[in-house]
Amino acid sequence: MYAIKRELKLNNKEASQMLGIAGFKRVVYNLGLDLLIASWQFPGVKASDSKRIDAIKKVFTQVTMHKRENSWMKKYPSTVYQSAFIDLKNAISRWRKGLGGFPKKKSKNIGDSFTVYKTAGVYPEKGKPPVPFTNRVTIESGKRIKLPGLKTFRLKEQIGFICSSQTFTVSRSADKWFVSFVLDAEKIPPTIHAIERAGVDLGVKCLATVSNGSKYDMPITTLKANTALGKLQWHNRNKVLGNKKLQVPASNKAKKYYVRLSRQHLRISNIRQDTTQKMTTDLSRKVYNIRIEDLNVSGLIANHKLAAAVSNNCFYEIRRQLVYKQAHYGTKVELVDRWYPSSKTCSRCGHIQDVKLSDRVFHCSKCGHCQDRDENASINLKNAPTDRVRSA
After folding, report:
1. For residue 273, what pLDDT is reported?
2. Are residues 55 and 87 in the same domain?
3. Which domain holds residue 15?
């Protein structure tokens, strides 16, 4: 599957409409979660979570939406609340399978998003099958996109070809709105890679060191953006930002500060995402068998001296991107056992010795081999024994 994400160019009225739709989805999701938890208090009712949510959805459409105080819900597309119940089903299912924590209530202004889609195909004549592709939206080449149930919106970046999709997800980051959709297209992976196997050592000083000698660094712009974020927070440390519990409203200047703060956080996130995407794509194009260490990221973050550097270098995100890009580039990602002493082993003679974190150069006390610490570790990851390696 191939996904496209574009930023929407909205005026004030359209942005208010997006906030209203996201709020509608949030209300439905939280209501469904509350009613589902309440239904568990009756042990005599034997039904799966999916059937319970279907019953809650039926009550919502037939009772809740017809109340006078909820008349505002009817001005939004029906697919918004339908997708909210679908998201709730998926969240509960992941929790039951142990793939995630228990679903939390959605909070205002945090992760605003909603999904709209075109409903099933129409039947032109009674007893005839539906017309093919009538449940899809055709997207023309250019800077405009028609969202099902809504109007046509402008895009800041054009779509360079004609395509079609059924489901569209609109999300907000800072004060910017984005639309993403999936195309029924497959990426043809390359059949030949320049390098057969390489070890990749993720580090604090250097983002990634490859066993062939190449290195990837986090750009200096990340440090500058973090410094600007700290200054922005320092200069506004005494500003009255409002308090919901004390019913103190935020001032207009405080609201402007929140927008500037969210934009700065988004800038830092974009720099990291751009760097890691380019790095993992470059690796996947060059190397067939990529070996990385199975790091305990949560344990590293628990160390307050390493937490900032580990978070900034996105260790788990790099692993996630390398794994999902296997199908795109025909690669094979392997994880080396986290207890394998790649940093303590000499890549030339195999001697194991203790190494401090402050030692950036590996000096072998047995054969005298001297090499950069990260390069030595990447070579050891490449040559790790098969019994210490597993598929990602």
Report:
1. 92
2. yes
3. 2-183
